[in-house]
């Protein structure tokens, strides 16, 4: 669909999608599968549910929208939103709804385009985080971890060889720490000197 041909309702749906796709809490929940194996489908469904909620309820207050979004995140993604972003998301969606009702479709289109651009920029930055320099650092870390593991194994093998050369009779367990009873009947355990 071409953006200029969208009706107010369709444009509002696209606005809700843009807001939710740039909401870090939801994206983290989706990326990490907090909603189960169908997390992405739930996120898509969330767009439809939110736009439907606005169309079926007149004169929604921002707090009602916050509660609704918070409940959806909790119920569908086992996520409690406590980073302060919930009021911002609720306000943004509410503003888009009012603008669509008032016929300010060109303003909404411009804001949706900015959000889509922000989303694309965020994804580009995320993919740039894995650069060849980072890969080299990771390889070096893995090699040093492997060397440390090999050294630890060498130490364990040397200890095992030393202990296996002694006869079993010489490997008696250490004596227990000395214990005294004080006048109240308590047992006092003292450290071996």
TrEMBL record:
Pfam family, one: WGG
Stretches with biased composition (Acidic residues): 134-157
Basic and acidic residues biased stretches: 158-172
GO annotation terms (biological process): rRNA processing
UniProt-annotated stretches for the region Disordered: 114-193
Signal peptide: none
Record has rRNA processing as a keyword: yes
InterPro entries: Pre-rRNA_process_TSR2 (IPR019398)
Keywords: rRNA processing
Family from the record: Belongs to the TSR2 family.
PANTHER family per the UniProt record, alphabetical: PRE-RRNA-PROCESSING PROTEIN TSR2 HOMOLOG (PTHR21250)
Function according to Swiss-Prot or TrEMBL: May be involved in 20S pre-rRNA processing.
Protein name: Pre-rRNA-processing protein TSR2 homolog
Organism: Synaphobranchus kaupii (Kaup's arrowtooth eel)
């Amino acid at each position: 669909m071409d953006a200029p041909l969208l009706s107010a309702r369709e444009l509002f749906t696209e606005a809700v999608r843009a807001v939710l796709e740039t909401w870090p809490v939801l994206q983290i929940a989706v990326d990490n599968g907090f909603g189960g194996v169908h997390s992405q489908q739930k996120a898509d469904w969330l767009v439809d549910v939110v736009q439907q909620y606005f169309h079926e309820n007149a004169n929604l207050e921002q707090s009602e929208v916050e509660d609704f979004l918070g409940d959806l995140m909790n119920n569908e993604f086992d996520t409690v939103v406590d980073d302060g972003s919930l009021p911002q998301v609720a306000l943004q969606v509410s503003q888009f709804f009012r603008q669509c009702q008032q016929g300010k479709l060109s303003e909404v289109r411009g804001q949706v385009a900015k959000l889509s651009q922000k989303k694309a920029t965020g994804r580009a930055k995320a993919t740039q985080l894995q650069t060849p320099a980072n890969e080299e650092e990771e390889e070096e870390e893995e090699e040093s971890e492997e060397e440390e593991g090999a050294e630890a194994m060498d130490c364990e093998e040397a200890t095992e060889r030393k202990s296996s050369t002694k006869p079993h009779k010489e490997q008696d367990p250490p004596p227990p720490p000395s214990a005294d009873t004080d006048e109240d009947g308590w047992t006092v355990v003292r450290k071996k000197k």
